[in-house]
Amino acid sequence: MAILRAPGVYYEPSEQRVPPLELGKTGVPVFLGITRRGPLDRPVRVTSEARFVEIFGDPLPESFLLATLRGFFDNGGTSCFILRIARTQGTSEEDVARRSFITIPDRAGQPTLLIEAQDEGQWGNFLKIALRAAPSEGRTFLTRDADAGDTILQVKSSHGITAGTLVCVQDETNTQWVAVNRVDGKSLLLADPLLHAHLSGAPTYVTPHSFEITVREFDREERFDRLSMHGASPRWVERVINEQSRLIRVKSLRPDTPPAQILPMDHEETGLTGGGDGLANLGPDDFIGHDRGPTDRRGLWGLLEHPEIDLVAMPDLMAAYQTSKRFRSLRDVEVVQDAAISICERSRHWFALLDMPPGGDFEEALRWRQQFDSAHCAFHFPWVVTLQQGRRTIVPPCGHVAGIISRVDQDVGIHKAPANEVIAGIVDLEIVLQDTHLAMLNNAGINCMRPFASRGLRVWGARTCSSDPEWRYINVRRTVGSISSAIERGTQWAVFEPNGPQLWKRVTRSIVGFLAGLREKGLLTGTTPEDAFYVRCDEETNPPDDVDRGMMTTEIGLAVSRPVEFIVFRVSQRLEDQAQQDVE
């Protein structure tokens, strides 16, 4: 029944609802690698091999990146990020990543446009640029006389003329080039006053002018017409090309040029020059990078606080070690892997999938493993053999393992160990290990690949590099990290709320409900909820001194499901006379 009220303003309080906690998407890796082209030091989402080639070009001969990416998708991965690595700092004589470019002068001979390749690399040296000016089709004429000093023209039609359009006002004796500030019906508001009087009956013509740019890369071509040098125009050259082109970007140098000479000079098809790949001198610091603030991050440090990534893999670290002269020894590889581990530990829920150095046997793998002790990384051994264009190629296993982790996370959950899973997309292993070797490697925390006669090639291990038994398994470390990250994200609403028992109870209810749901899905173990987890947020965890400092502390305990590594069957033989005695 409707409530009848007098007109007025009424206040109806509603209960403040707390958003439910939920696990974010997991199994999303970032692959660090070397490519022909593509954005530098910025992770780019890739959802298919074709998308990778479109953005980053055909793979380099020495790179493992495309083979790694193919292994990821073959094994069930759906989405990942690519971080292109190159050397960007050095002397003019060094091979550093540079964009190809060409400078276009205006009709006064002054530089007016800087045209660069979209990304750094020698690929840009194959781009061809052509530029020509052309009058538009919207030629019109004055319908009302205009005096010198006027800033408004009345024309027959304003078709093809917009804000920023350069027009030529011309009668039998006088010509003036001027930009249009605004179009109001058939009235043109000019940026500069007229220098001469113009009669409508002379007649006086108003002709809009623009220019076009064509860029070509082999059989691929882009064409941009009706371009303007005026920033107010919807066809401003910077805005149009930088938003639409996949090959080039443009910067207007804005010289102090009169409108009559502001259009760029016509240019026959000319190649860009000066591009560099920055791969010959690639070093450990280029993979590690730096963090000098939100606008200056490179390499691994450029991944900080990325909201979607939780796996880190560096397949082309080994390619750089094999080809770059600045990787002097395996010590440089160790430094980069240590940096990746540090960043994963700092993020708390990231995990690094590290590769063994190429060409090593199981003894060398054991020695390499002893240099690391962290629950945020894992090694898989040996390298795997794939078919690349019909040829057997040995590649690092990190991409295939990342695909398996992603698939298991989607199909079962992050609590399932990414082991005893078939490795798709490979035809062999670089080394076939014996059971004795498998036992030694597994005991050392190295996850092996092994063949089974009827079950194919499988991942046969799910251990981290930690010496702490509590963090022995990959799924345990990742599950705890994912839960912690979900709680951190989902309790942001509590910041700046009154710090007291009412808030503590609301936080506790939210977390308890979240963990109870995870227990039902199998992420937590225990016959009862009390066995699976506990949450404490009360006067004991929040003493008055902490409350005075604006701190709220919640203590959470978890019993995470652990995988079965060893299954033991005890079989005893019963003698015949014992069996007969049992029957009697």
Features:
about 25% helix, alpha+beta, globular, 3 domains, 14 helices, nine-stranded antiparallel beta sheet, about 575 residues
Tally of distinct domains: 3
Number of extended strands? 30
Give the overall pLDDT as a whole number.
91
General shape: globular
Radius of gyration: 34 Å
Distance between the termini: 84 Å
Percent of residues in helices comes to 10-25%
Could you name the ranges where pLDDT drops below 50 across 5 or more consecutive residues?
A: none
The assigned structural class equals alpha+beta
* CATH-defined topology of the largest domain: Rossmann fold
Name of the CATH class of the largest domain: Alpha Beta
Q: How many DSSP H or I helices?
A: 14
Q: Return the CATH architecture of the largest domain.
A: 3-Layer(aba) Sandwich
Strand content range: 15-25%
Largest β sheet strand count, sense and barrel closure: 9 strands, mixed
Strand line-up of the largest beta sheet: 2-3-1-20-21-22-27-28-25
Explain this structure:
The chain has 584 residues and is of the alpha+beta class. The chain folds into three domains: 29-89 and 279-474, Rossmann fold; 97-276, no CATH class; 497-584, no CATH class. The chain is built from 14 helices and 30 strands. It has a nine-stranded mixed beta sheet with strand order 2-3-1-20-21-22-27-28-25, sandwiched between helices. Strand 21 (351-355), helix 7 and strand 22 (377-381) form a beta-alpha-beta unit. Helix 2 (65-74) runs parallel beside helix 8. The longest helix has 21 residues, at 501-521. The protein is globular. The chain starts with 28 loop residues before the first strand and ends with a helix.
